[in-house]
Specification:
heterodimer, A: mainly alpha, B: mainly alpha, 67% helix
Chain lengths: 273, 289
């Protein structure tokens, strides 16, 4: 498959369309911001009680724990923690058979969906992520860094986390080739992802072996690692280690997605064919 | 298989249906549509059994997060693990019952967008019943099962001084709580008549509500507790009656009689949601000219 500059422009255009497509639904965006903010308030007050009982739990002080909550709510939609990513559409296209049309296109299936999901995530990150975090910073005492360098490091970790998140969701979506109804797998994937990314509770609060296992699973790249980068836990070589970890998982998952894709497309039998 | 020689059964008199009250007719429709979806779900028995097991385990992760919190602390907001499990179990089970029975109502916005609501409107049966039963998802039994398991765990570890009133309080909480959440689902659907794209707002109240109620009221600010007691009376699902069962002071210094109010509060909310539904449905104008 050719990957010249024309190709890059094509995928950039797909990503831009993905961005604009989600930007069209303003009411939905506002509704989502409201919901994330409500959940943020509930979780923040729970964490306040938990950290009041055990100050310094997991190495976080109270402000850091609260910051973790609000970063989680801000990334919630961008990483499609509870669905709403491009994988749902892909799954539906596999189920309905429309995937045959996608396979006819002279583009790479995985890159096409990655581009579309990148556009979506970019919109969700800035349009849906910024306001809950701003609300949290206004109402609670957060530990947000002042240095722009830390923010850039954080956004880089978020971008890599999004790549990992897409890698997982693409695999989940491809399961529809075998199961047809992917709703069950999709739901299982969210709940496991919510738990092991730290959305329910930061991974450094997980005790013993469970904590160690959770930290090396791919989901830690999605929330725990970016949040720790923002909180200044990882700097210098530690930061490079975080990026290397995220990149390794992203590469492994995307390669697995590619392998599964070539296996799956050989199975495609269009109705009547 | 019908015998072709048999005389055709007389068609039911259309007037007959009109004699039934809207409520009985609605329930009949609901039962029929639900039975259809259940039958279709059970066609793939193995798939369903797997989905159910997965749902129980996956929903359980939510409670595991609470267990992990309690691996570091003995009490959260002054409540022990058993007490929090009691709150979690009652909240999750009540929510699960509502989610199973009327949870599909949140598809209304989508149906308005793609125009398929109009199909339901031309059928001579109540729209509310059709929508509530739409795509009835039996796998949602998973959440109820998981909630009930946590509740059972709570009841075994808690040392409650059981009286007849306290014992009756538990099923009363589950039924009233389910009705309260059900009213919330219907009200959320009404909201979608006016703001189809903003369907997600209702998640803040339904899913947000059940999450809130899983933790002790003492964890939250007084303003938050007051607003879910007096404005959106979710506190009557478990916080208020559970305080009586657990022999604790009621939140916000409410009198102990308030613990017996859930059925009344739920009934008022259901009537209010029903009225809202009528207003919303009448305000609905289909697309096109």
């Amino acid at each position: 498959m050719a990957h010249g500059p024309g190709r890059a422009a094509l995928y950039a255009a797909v990503a831009a369309k993905g961005f604009r497509r989600y930007a069209t639904y303003r009411a939905a965006t506002l509704a989502g911001i409201f919901t994330n903010t409500v959940f943020g308030v509930i979780l923040a007050q729970t964490y306040l009680a938990l950290w009041a009982e055990r100050p310094g739990l997991g190495g976080y002080d109270q402000a850091q724990a609260l910051t973790f909550v609000w970063i989680g709510q801000s990334l919630h939609m961008a990483v499609a923690a509870m669905g709403g990513g491009s994988e749902e559409e892909l799954m539906e296209r596999i189920r309905s058979g429309d995937i045959a049309v996608d396979l006819y296109r002279p583009v790479d299936l995985q890159l096409w969906w990655l581009a579309q999901d990148a556009g979506r995530a970019c919109f969700q990150l800035f349009a849906r992520g910024a306001l809950p975090l701003a609300f949290g910073a206004l109402v609670f005492d957060l530990a947000l860094p002042a240095s722009p360098g830390t923010w850039i490091a954080f956004l880089t970790a978020v971008a890599l986390g999004l790549l990992v998140s897409f890698g997982i969701r693409y695999l989940v979506a491809l399961s529809a080739f075998w199961l047809l109804d992917g709703a069950g797998v999709g739901q299982l994937a969210w709940l496991v992802g919510m738990f092991f990314s730290g959305m329910m509770l930061p991974l450094n609060v997980f005790p013993g072996l469970l904590g160690e296992v959770a930290r090396v699973l791919p989901w830690s790249s999605i929330l725990q690692l970016p949040a720790d980068v923002l909180l200044g836990v990882h700097t210098g070589t530690g930061l490079l280690g975080v990026y290397a970890f995220q990149l390794a998982w992203a590469a492994a998952l995307l390669a697995a997605g590619r392998a599964l894709q070539s296996l799956a497309t050989r199975r495609v039998v269009v109705q009547g064919g | 298989m019908a015998d072709p020689a048999a005389p055709p059964r007389p068609a039911p008199d259309p007037v007959d249906a009109r004699f039934g009250s809207p409520l009985t007719e609605g329930l009949r429709t609901y039962r029929l549509v639900v039975a259809m979806w259940v039958r279709s779900t059970l066609t793939y028995r193995a798939s369903f059994a797997m989905a159910l097991c997965v749902a129980v385990v996956a929903n359980g992760l939510d409670f595991v997060a609470i267990l992990l919190m309690f691996s570091h602390v003995d009490r959260l907001g002054g409540f022990t693990l058993g007490e929090v499990a009691f709150l979690y179990g009652t909240s999750a089970t009540a929510f699960g019952l509502a989610h199973l029975t009327v949870g599909s109502m949140d598809r209304l916005g989508r149906r308005i967008r793609d125009g398929s609501l109009d199909t339901l409107l031309v059928r001579p049966v109540p729209v509310l019943a059709q929508l509530a039963a739409d795509r009835f998802a039996l796998r949602r039994l998973g959440r109820i099962t998981q909630g009930a398991l946590v509740l059972a765990y709570a009841l075994t570890v808690l040392e409650i001084d059981w009286t007849a009133t306290r014992l009756l309080m538990v099923p009363m909480m589950l039924v009233s709580g389910a009705a309260l959440f059900g009213a919330l689902f219907v009200a959320g659907a009404v909201f979608q008549f006016y703001a189809q794209d903003a369907a997600e707002v209702q998640n803040a109240f339904t899913y947000g509500g059940t999450t809130l109620l899983q933790y002790p009221p003492t964890v939250f600010t007084r303003e938050l507790v007051a607003s879910v007691t007096f404005v959106l009376p979710l506190a009557f699902v478990n916080w208020v009656p559970a305080s009586y069962v657990l022999d604790r002071p009621l939140p916000l210094g409410l009198p102990v009689q308030a613990a017996f109010a859930p059925p009344l509060v739920a009934a008022v909310c259901c009537v209010a949601a029903g009225l809202l539904w009528r207003v919303g449905l009448r305000a609905y104008r289909s697309t096109g000219s």
